[in-house]
Structure formats: C-alpha cells, structure tokens
Amino acid sequence: MSRALIFALVLGALTVGGFEPFGFFWLPIITLALLIGLWQRHPAPRDGAALGFAFGLGLFLCGASWVYVSLHQFGAMPAALAALATLMFCVILALFPTAAGWLAAHSRLSGTPYALLAAPALWVLTEWMRGWFLTGFPWQSVGYSQVPYSPLAGFAPVFGIYGVSLAVALSAGAIVTLFEAGRRKAAHSGRLRTIASVILHPSFFILAILWIGGYALQQMAWTTPAGAPLTVSLLQGNIPQSLKWKPQAVRSTLETYYQMVMASDARLIVLPETALPMFYQNVPKNYLAALTTHARLNGGDLLFGVPEHTDGSVYYNSVVSIGTSPSQTYRKHHLVPFGEFLPFKPLFGWVLDVLDIPLSDFSRGPFYQKPMTVAGQQVAVDICYEDGFGDEIIRQLPQATLLVNVSNDAWFGHSIALEQHLQMSQARALETGRYMLRATNTGVTAVIDPKGRVVARAPEFTRATVNDTISGYQGATPFVQWGNPAAIILCLLLMVAAAWLGVLRQNR
Questions:
Q1: Which of 138, 127, 444 is nearest to 272 (CA)?
Q2: Is 317 helix (H, G, I), strand (E, B) or coil?
Q3: How far apart, in whole angstroms, are the C-alpha atoms of residue 70 and residue 339?
Q4: If we measure between CA atoms, which residue out of 53, 48, 51, 61 comes closest to residue 16?
Q5: What is the C-alpha separation between 408 and 414, in angstroms, rounded?
Q6: Which of 37, 44, 29 lies closest to 8, judged by CA?
Q7: Which end of the chain, N or C, is surrounded by fewer C-beta atoms within 10 Å?
C-alpha cells in the first residue's frame, strides 16, 4: 500500500502538467484513469481515502504552490510559517479527493459500473463541493485543463466547467474499463479477438461519443455578434507589488496610467484592479476630469479599479466607469479569504498581525449587479478571483454582451498562477460565448474570443497596452440558461445508474 500511496502522490503532481502553462490536456485523463485503477485494486474505504488524499496532496502542492509566494514574498509572513500555512491549505484541499475515494469505496460497486460511472461522478461532485465550501477554491478543477483546444472543451457552453471535468473523468473511467476488458480477453483469446472485443465494448462507444460529441459542440455558434465593432485598450501598468501601496509611489502610479490612457484612442479603455492605489473619494478631481474628457473625446468610456470608501469603516473593491455614459460602479462580491476579508475573526484575528496586506477587510458588494452600459455595450464586470466561478459570472447574462475581468496577479509573482488564472478566464468566455477582456497589473493582460482562445496578449511584467477590435455578443448558451445544476444533476444520475447496474450484476 505504501508504494501505491507514493504512486498516487506522483500522479497528482503530474496532473498539474495538464494545465497551463504546460498544456498537456491529455495528461489528467491518464492520471485520473490510473487513480481509478488504484481505487479498484484497493477497495477498502480506508485505502480509497488514503489514495485520494495522496493524489490530492500531490495535485495541490504542485498546482497551488504560489500560495507560499503570496504569503511570504508579498504578505511578509515568515518563511517557515508561510510554508506551514501553504501545506495546511493543500492538506485541506486534498480532503476533497479523499472524500471521493472514501465514497467510491463505500459505493460497494466493482467492475464497469464503478470505474465508468460512480468514480467519475464522485470526483466531479467533490470538485463542485470544493468550488463553494468556505467560499470555494475552484483552482485545479480538471475541466480547466481542456480549455480551449481539447475536444472535451466543447462541453463548456453546455454544462460549464464541471461538465468538462465530468467528460475528463468519464474518459478516464472508460480507459480503465477498456484496459480491464482487454486484459481479461487477452488471457483467453488471440490478439485480433482481443482488439475486436475492446472496439465493441460499450466503454469504447462512450469514449468515442464523448470526444466526437465534444468536437461537434466546438463547431457550434451558440451566440451571435451584436452591435458595431468596438475598439478596446487594456492597460498593464506593471506597478511592482512591493511599491503599489507605498505613499511615495502613488504619484508615479497615477502618472503612469495617465500617460497610457492619453495614448489610447479606443472607445473602451480598461485599467486593472485597484489601478489607482487610493480611495476613489481621494482621487484628485482634476485627474478624474482629465481621464473623463479623454474618454469622451474617444466617444466611449474608461473602466478603472479603485478601492471605494463609504460611511464608517465600510469599503469595497470596486470598478468605476467614467466617460460618455453616466458613471457606474461595480463592487466585488466574492472576496478572497484572508486576502480581502477575514473569516471567523475571533479565531483568525491574529492573522492580520502576521500578514502585511493592505485593505484586507473589504465588504461584499451586492449579490446581483446589473451590467455596465458603456461604449455601446452591456459589460459584465468581475474582479480577479471572481472569474473562477462560472455560475457567478452568468448572473449578469444574457443581458451582458461583453465580459471584463480586472486583476492584480502581481500577488502570485513569477509563478504558474498567472497562466492558470488566464485559463479560467478562457473558460468563462467559452461558457458564455462572449469576448473576455482581461486587464491586469503585471499579467496576463489579454483579449479572449468567444471560443476561449487568446487572440491578443501582453508579455508579463512589462508596461504594455493591448489594443484590439472586438464585437459584443448576444444570445445565451445552455450553460447561461441553467448553470452548474445541470452537470451536478448529471453526476447524480450517473450514480443512480451505477447503483442500478451494480444491483443487476449482483442478481445474476
């Protein structure tokens, strides 16, 4: 069993290679198939849980190692404490694959119903739980590894990212059952008969349906262009995180963005999250007036991230629009625990004494917020971490014709988190059938088309402007209409089908 645990740990670590910046989208299918095979060979609930934990620990230690960078390099947490906090965070995340392994063993199924239906469904159900438990952490959901080029990404506009995860897990389960069927047949028949039996096996047809069906769905146009083409400029100021909130750097930051704005003639100009490092109420009036005048001369609007202070101690992480249209505000609703708000203050109040994170106790914006009417479009704005939650993005749809994400991923340093976050934005574009505009402080600033493909981007950690001409889109993908529940219901139905098939097998 110890060798199996080490193998599971390695498999989890290798799974990270399926995500960007590596992009071997086939790899999570293989590693999940091998995990399911381990679960079959070690059917005891305790063993299943241990294997799931080892796999999850390898996945998150390698895939979310950037948490250490945020805590230590930019949060000023001592190295040893930051390493311990990162380890504990990954241990907590690994409990979800642990639950999948434990529940799979308790399903008391073997053979095809277990590997092909029950185990994949349980994997996705625990992924979904991880996406909302204690505000959620959807990073490393295996569906993201398929975006945008894998044929399985075609399921994103229909069932969302958890539907893509289910397609990945079902593909893994089908591979396991085909391997087992071929191994059993090879023990009694020749090579040709073994190959024929594998090709005619129901799992082979399921595998073919998943991949051919996903490719066919990729060719469908779920939404259509709306309105005239729109010129856009996405500004990447590349303000070092170590200087961003220093009082002596404020003037330089304002001047940087002023010059970048004045150099753009786009109808829609987008600045990153908290681009202006002061409360909105304290931004010089003449500075805002100059930006507003320029946006109006361009015949459009400008969006910028800025902290917003209201009465008392209430303040928000906001995006404000200025220009031709009336000024509007979006206030971030889904906040980052320990980064933007402190959960369970009586228990974790000491964390604020250890971390040096400015504005670490924001208030939540409204649950439902209307799209911004700017530059002739209806723009659904989200801030940084929020674009990891597809079911939250669709709250502003189908009214919104365009998606905008503003982020400050400088917190992650030179880590794989930047490309992972970009891939999540690509998934949101694919799910909704709309352009996604990403304006970030240090990268990745990019334009993403409705198929989830990056069509323009700036190099990371440089001062740059991404210019492009895009279109707004109208219409609703199936995912916009029904959200995550469709994929979750499908998983539950697979569990029921697996149980039914298991009963039939036992009654034979």
A1: 444
A2: strand
A3: 9
A4: 61
A5: 13
A6: 37
A7: C
Q: What is the pLDDT of residues 357-373, one digit of tens each?
A: 555 578 899 999 999 99
Whole-model pTM: value is: 0.93
Q: Which of 127, 384, 386, 451 is the catalytic position?
A: 384
Whose tokens are 């969006």? That residue is 303
Tokens of 159: 């069932």
Residue 186 CB burial class (10 angstroms; 0-12, 13-18, ≥19): middle
Q: CA 103 to CA 490: how far, in whole Å?
A: 18
Active site (annotated) includes residue 244: no
SS3 222: coil
Of the residues 273, 340, 386, 431, which is catalytic?
273
User: For 293-328, how does the pLDDT look when each residue is reduced to its tens digit (9 = 90+)?
Assistant: 999 999 999 999 999 988 767 889 999 999 999 999
Answer yes or no: are the C-beta atoms of 160 and 182 closer than 8 Å: no
* CA–CA–CA angle 345, 134, 84 (5° rounding): 70
332 is catalytic: yes
Reduced to 3 states (helix: H, G, I; strand: E, B; else coil), residue 383 is strand
Active site residue 180: no
Collapsing DSSP states into helix, strand and coil, what is residue 448?
Answer: strand
What long-range pairs does 63-66 form, CB within 8 A, spacing at least 24?
63/15, 63/16, 63/19, 63/139, 63/140, 63/416, 63/420, 64/89, 64/90, 64/93, 64/139, 64/140, 64/417, 65/415, 65/416, 66/412, 66/413, 66/415, 66/416, 66/417
Q: What percent of the chain has pLDDT over 90?
A: 70
Structure tokens given for 37: 């095979």
Cβ neighbors of 368 (< 8 A, separation 6 or more) are 395
